[in-house]
């Protein structure tokens, strides 16, 4: 089989948790995405070249893309060298899987260069090493949808058990207020114990959401987009959160909530016109408190990391 001399990819943003599925559900979106190019080098090791202004580390052990590649290289029979160029469009720390896009994109591109020797599950396993660098823990709720595309259920990470889920067409409105929420802070404020009555509500919602997606039942999807465990605690880190959600739903959104650990907020809608209206309402809240923000109106990305050439 002939292998390319270089591989260019688009690695998409992802929305982890999907409201009720903390650490177990996530989906990929069409926009924004990072652009990455990888090729072999004569010298062994990893050279990272950042082509954006985010000033991320070029030391492979500190850059999530490098950490993921190092895990992949440990399983190769012969030492190799890679040069990786990263042009990030997904702002780090925005809550839409910036670190996952780099980690997943790097190993998917490297695998193509190597002649497709690893499975998707292997690639998730390597890329999770990048998430460990970013947030201190391995998790796959951004990595899995980035690699598989669409909506994914991560039933378990040790051992890995990833289930791609069918979903009906959905429009996604994402608003990113320009404040910093550190993933480590967003995790440390969570309660370590939950009440049984809350747990029952939560797993009812997760099951309802999965069933709603499989059956293309928009009303069931909407009813299930409720989080009684994480959102009440985390939403205090995002100014205007309750009003944003209230106005988005009034404008016709099926539902939504915090994207990953925030500060981005996402809403799902059945059609584009509603998603536009929802964006307008969400923006109006941040405008009223003079909080700068970026908005994306996009759809679910069913293919994951995309090969450009
Ligand atoms: P997000 O949810 O947007 O991925 P995180 O806080 O989980 O945000 O991850 C971003 C952290 O990972 C930042 O501290 C950033 O400096 C670090 N990091 C290291 N390498 C990269 C990379 N290639 N892409 C994105 N973030 C990276």
What is the structure about, briefly put?
The chain is of the alpha+beta class and 309 residues long. 36% of the residues lie in helices and 25% in strands.
Q: How large a portion of the residues is in β-strands, by DSSP E?
A: 25-35%
At the fold tier of CATH, the topology name of the largest domain is: Ribosomal Protein S5, domain 2
Top-tier CATH class of the largest domain: Alpha Beta
The helix/strand order is EEEHEHHHEEEHHHHHEEHEE
Q: Which architecture name of the largest domain does CATH use?
A: 2-Layer Sandwich
Question: Which terms would index this structure?
Answer:
4-stranded antiparallel beta sheet, 309 residues, globular, binds adenosine-5'-diphosphate, alpha+beta, Ribosomal Protein S5, domain 2, 36% helix
Description:
The structure is a single chain. Strands 1, 2, 3, 4, 5, 6 and 11 form a 7-stranded mixed sheet that branches. The chain has a 4-stranded antiparallel sheet with strand order 8-9-7-10. Strand 3, helix 1 (64-73) and strand 4 form a beta-alpha-beta unit. The protein has 10 helices and 11 strands. It is globular, with a radius of gyration of 19 Å. It is α+β, with helices and mostly antiparallel strands. Helices cover 36% and strands 25% of the residues. The chain has 2 domains: 6-166 and 302-307, 2-Layer Sandwich (Ribosomal Protein S5, domain 2), CATH 3.30.230; 171-299, 2-Layer Sandwich (Alpha-Beta Plaits), CATH 3.30.70.890. Helix 1 (64-73) runs parallel beside helix 2 (98-113). The longest helix is centred in the middle third of the chain and has 19 residues, at 196-214. The protein binds adenosine-5'-diphosphate. Adenosine-5'-diphosphate is lined by residues 56-57, 63-65, 86, 92-100, 102, 134-135, 183, 260.
